[in-house]
Amino acid sequence: MSAPFAQIEALSVRYPGATRPALDRLSLTIAQGERLAVIGESGSGKSTFARALAGLLPQGSRQSGEIHWTPERPRPGAGYGYVFQDPGGSLNPVLSIGTQLVEVIRTHLRLSRAEARDRAEALLARVQLPDPQAALARYPHQFSGGQRQRIAIALAIAAGPALLIADEATSALDMLVQAEIMRLLDDLVREMGMTLIFITHDMALAASLADRIAVLRDARLVETGPARQVIDAPREPYTRELLAAHVDLRSPVLIGQTSGGRE
Ligand SMILES: Nc1ncnc2c1ncn2[C@@H]1O[C@H](COP(=O)(O)OP(=O)(O)OP(=O)(O)O)[C@@H](O)[C@H]1O
């Protein structure tokens, strides 16, 4: 394994007023540049794990255990970008796309307004948004769900983060659009050398995109290993159950098989 990016030791999280932990003594090492898929049923703690890594837990949550970051804890912007399931989580409905991108870019990079605008347009082109120049002047509601997610990705990567966290980034989208967005994320992660942590219900996506898979169940990490090994030879009965529930897993995945333009 290459150098560690985050060494997580016995990480537990309890939300305010909750009787049970949402994450229970999770230990895991994330390598620099790896693509880690976190899978598990609804409520198993996947988003809690992602939020804890990003320091985005709600106020009053109790977190214990340790996370050792190399070289240091990533901050929003150049440290990490976060893509939420609902692009509404990242987009401000009352500001134009250009204003939002330029603000993020200027907060994190020393660029003039004109340079930031050029970069914003280039980012929109990179996430394959049609007519990026015109898109800068538009507002979030003027785009489809898939396009909004592309814009949210552009915002998340605008400052060139070392880590990208994608929390069910495609599950609100139809299958073909999902595949296109995941392919885009895959390309961006390779191009920019980012570490990727992506949360999904979808074993097929995890199998096609991840180097490693972590399986959560009831707040605990039940299995982790190289993606192929977890898929082909799961150690835990629970992982086998998850796999069995995905009858389509061994059929060809959509990533790499679609062409743009479905949004
Ligand atoms: N803000 C919160 N306050 C209290 N409890 C919460 C909060 N967010 C999540 N929980 C609880 O913590 C547990 C883990 O939730 P989490 O959202 O991490 O699961 P998940 O695996 O991401 O689920 P999903 O796939 O449905 O998003 C669940 O029991 C959930 O109800």
From TrEMBL:
Q: Which GO terms describe its molecular function?
A: ATP binding; ATP hydrolysis activity
Q: Which Gene3D superfamilies match?
A: P-loop containing nucleotide triphosphate hydrolases
Domain (ABC transporter) ranges? 8-243
* Keyword annotations of the record: ATP-binding, Cell membrane, Hydrolase, Membrane, Nucleotide-binding, Transport
Q: Which GO terms describe its cellular component?
A: plasma membrane
Cross-referenced CDD domains, in alphabetical order? ABC_NikE_OppD_transporters (cd03257)
User: What Enzyme Commission number(s) appear in the record?
Assistant: 3.6.3.-
Q: Does the keyword Signal apply?
A: no
Which Pfam families does this entry report, sorted A to Z?
A: ABC_tran
The cellular location(s) given in this protein's UniProt record come to: Cell inner membrane
Please tell me whether the keyword Phosphoprotein is annotated for this protein. no
Kindly give the membrane topology term recorded for this protein. Answer: Peripheral membrane protein
SUPFAM superfamilies per the record? Answer: P-loop containing nucleoside triphosphate hydrolases
Family, as annotated: Belongs to the ABC transporter superfamily.
Query: What protein is this chain from?
Result: Peptide/nickel transport system, ATP-binding protein
